[in-house]
Amino acid sequence: MNPAQGPSERGREIAARVEAFVREAVSPYERDPRCGAHGPSDELVDELRAKARAAGVLTPHIPDGGHLSHQDVALVLRAAGLSPLGPVAVNVAAPDEGNMYLLGKVASAEQKARFLKPMLEGRARSAFFMTEPSEEGGAGSDPSMMKTTAGLDGNHWVVNGRKAFITGAEGAKVGIVMAKSDDGASMFLVDLPMEGIRIERVLDTIDSSMPGGHAIVTLDNVRIPADQMLGQAGEGFKMAQIRLAPARLTHCMRWWGAARRANEIATAYACKRHAFGKPLVDHEGVGFMLADNLIDLKQAELMIDWCAGVLDTGDLGVAESSMTKVAVSEALFRIADRCVQVMGGTGVTGDTIVEQVFREIRAFRIYDGPTEVHKWSLAKKVKRDWAVGQAAAG
């Protein structure tokens, strides 16, 4: 698709239905006691997905088994993000959305039937086992440091290692495990729970929107049938990029919706709340913050749409993905921070979702690559491009 074409009418219609569903049916659950420190409970997830299924908005980015263009996905996921529960309710949340995209691209027909189908139907959550504990020198922002190993034993692969910050591992039914074989990094599909895969603990983290939280996991002599390898041995890093580049972008889409909703709440507060003889919004210190929010929202929206268009052409590179992730995550955090400030004491309470959006977007600046790692990657490109230019100039 030409980026200039923009989203389709079908995408706009789906996004409108998702927005109406999230605002009307999902947002009333935001104070539900089943929303805990480690995300909404599986009972709540099932209840919300049943409502989404009945409303015809479950897994809306892959209607009838065909993935929408990323320009359409941008509209749909921004609408889903209007509530912290929205992506989970309509089945476009991380890590499931990225995992569904990867399996749709590289899994065999048998693997799709066994592992992807229940995810598309909203009956199974998934987890992506890549990151490792930093204290052991394992893979984090640098996946080449991977310590988890996979060795072939007959018609099984035997995997050993530890993983960290594994989102949704508790309660997941599908796992994608990344390990280092003799041929290089490889990926494996597993049913969960599974013998040898043990959750050590679920970490207490600043964010709380993702079911199952983020876990430390031990893999102890996990025997995985050879036909559950995803792709070929040694293709793990290549497949990780197939997943991670779009996943960075879809994170931006979801959290843009959350920032928009937080700004709506802060704007309503500033227009209704009076101080020193006039509404807060009429004080420049407050009104200018809300004006800055509109600017950041629009710039972030344009960056997301530009990157989605590039992705649809098949020309998305690491640089475009990194620039978008940095620009959008930093802009959305500024928005969330201003919303808290505008609302004062109310902004730091759980009376609205503003404080949660602040926490969630703060975490977003780290996961899928911290801002500094992406800037480092871009700086290397700057140096490389300069060298190429110098060589061409003679």
Automatic annotation (TrEMBL):
<dbReference type="InterPro" id="IPR006091">
    <property type="entry name" value="Acyl-CoA_Oxase/DH_mid-dom"/>
</dbReference>
<dbReference type="InterPro" id="IPR046373">
    <property type="entry name" value="Acyl-CoA_Oxase/DH_mid-dom_sf"/>
</dbReference>
<dbReference type="GO" id="GO:0050660">
    <property type="term" value="F:flavin adenine dinucleotide binding"/>
</dbReference>
<keyword id="KW-0274">FAD</keyword>
<dbReference type="InterPro" id="IPR050741">
    <property type="entry name" value="Acyl-CoA_dehydrogenase"/>
</dbReference>
<dbReference type="Pfam" id="PF02771">
    <property type="entry name" value="Acyl-CoA_dh_N"/>
</dbReference>
<dbReference type="Pfam" id="PF00441">
    <property type="entry name" value="Acyl-CoA_dh_1"/>
</dbReference>
<dbReference type="InterPro" id="IPR009100">
    <property type="entry name" value="AcylCoA_DH/oxidase_NM_dom_sf"/>
</dbReference>
<feature type="domain" description="Acyl-CoA oxidase/dehydrogenase middle">
    <location>
        <begin position="128"/>
        <end position="205"/>
    </location>
</feature>
<dbReference type="InterPro" id="IPR013786">
    <property type="entry name" value="AcylCoA_DH/ox_N"/>
</dbReference>
<protein>
    <submittedName>
        <fullName>Acyl-CoA dehydrogenase family protein</fullName>
    </submittedName>
</protein>
<dbReference type="Pfam" id="PF02770">
    <property type="entry name" value="Acyl-CoA_dh_M"/>
</dbReference>
<keyword id="KW-0285">Flavoprotein</keyword>
<keyword id="KW-0560">Oxidoreductase</keyword>
<feature type="domain" description="Acyl-CoA dehydrogenase/oxidase N-terminal">
    <location>
        <begin position="9"/>
        <end position="122"/>
    </location>
</feature>
<dbReference type="GO" id="GO:0033539">
    <property type="term" value="P:fatty acid beta-oxidation using acyl-CoA dehydrogenase"/>
</dbReference>
<feature type="domain" description="Acyl-CoA dehydrogenase/oxidase C-terminal">
    <location>
        <begin position="234"/>
        <end position="381"/>
    </location>
</feature>
<dbReference type="InterPro" id="IPR036250">
    <property type="entry name" value="AcylCo_DH-like_C"/>
</dbReference>
<dbReference type="GO" id="GO:0005737">
    <property type="term" value="C:cytoplasm"/>
</dbReference>
<dbReference type="InterPro" id="IPR009075">
    <property type="entry name" value="AcylCo_DH/oxidase_C"/>
</dbReference>
<dbReference type="GO" id="GO:0003995">
    <property type="term" value="F:acyl-CoA dehydrogenase activity"/>
</dbReference>
<dbReference type="InterPro" id="IPR037069">
    <property type="entry name" value="AcylCoA_DH/ox_N_sf"/>
</dbReference>
<comment type="similarity">
    <text>Belongs to the acyl-CoA dehydrogenase family.</text>
</comment>
